[in-house]
């Protein structure tokens, strides 16, 4: 699937190690991570060559091409919150993941939008399991829809 990985940049990079793991787990499972740059340790150099408007437009273009959004929300980030909301408005399924210690916003944890799933992970294995379950559920829905449209 084409996945938009959303993760804090200016909100703080202390969970970067986790963004790198998420990106490589997704790629290992055969998914395309359109926003792989969020897990790039050298991101600052690349983004400093772009204007604020170019960054925004590039990201929104990637989001519109994506089939779902997976966000790491342990670190509060305006950009991640904006992308989660934009994805829901575009009708994309959203998975928000966070560590047990994280002080996650009620705008995520209290959100009853049917397109949004928020899960806590205790370790890398749990993180992997949650992402695989989420994505395989979406793949099954896509397959059923394709079969329906090819028969009608
Ligand atoms: O340089 C950037 N590049 C970029 O792609 N973003 C997008 C992707 C991230 O999922 C999200 C991070 O937002 P923030 O920088 O507010 O933490 O915004 C954000 C910035 C900087 O705000």
Automatic annotation (TrEMBL):
Enzyme Commission code(s) on record: 3.2.2.-
Stated family? Belongs to the 2'-deoxynucleoside 5'-phosphate N-hydrolase 1 family.
A GO molecular function annotation here is: identical protein binding
Q: What highest taxon heads this organism's lineage? A: Archaea
Please name the GO terms of the biological process aspect recorded for this protein, alphabetically.
Answer: deoxyribonucleoside monophosphate catabolic process; nucleoside metabolic process; purine nucleotide metabolic process
What top-tier enzyme class does this entry carry?
Answer: hydrolase
Q: Which UniProt keywords apply?
A: Glycosidase, Hydrolase, Nucleotide metabolism
Which named protein is this?
A: Putative 2'-deoxynucleoside 5'-phosphate N-hydrolase 1
Protein role: Catalyzes the cleavage of the N-glycosidic bond of deoxyribonucleoside 5'-monophosphates to yield deoxyribose 5-phosphate and a purine or pyrimidine base.
Q: Where does substrate bind?
A: 19, 83, 105-107
Q: What species is this protein from?
A: Methanolobus halotolerans
Assembly and partners are described as:
Monomer and homodimer.
């Amino acid at each position: 699937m084409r996945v938009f990985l959303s993760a804090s940049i200016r909100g703080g990079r202390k969970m970067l190690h986790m963004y790198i793991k998420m990106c490589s787990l997704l790629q290992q499972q055969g998914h395309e991570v359109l926003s792989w740059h969020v897990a790039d340790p050298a991101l600052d150099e690349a983004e400093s060559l772009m204007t604020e408007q170019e960054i925004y437009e590039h990201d929104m273009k990637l989001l519109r091409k994506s089939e779902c959004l997976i966000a790491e929300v342990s670190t509060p980030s305006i950009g991640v919150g904006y992308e989660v909301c934009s994805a829901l408005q575009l009708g994309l399924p959203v998975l928000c993941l966070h560590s047990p210690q994280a002080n996650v916003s009620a705008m995520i944890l209290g959100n009853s939008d049917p397109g949004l799933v928020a899960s806590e992970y205790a370790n890398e294995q749990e993180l992997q399991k949650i992402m695989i379950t989420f994505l395989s559920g979406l793949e099954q829905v896509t397959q059923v829809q394709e079969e329906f449209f090819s028969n009608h």
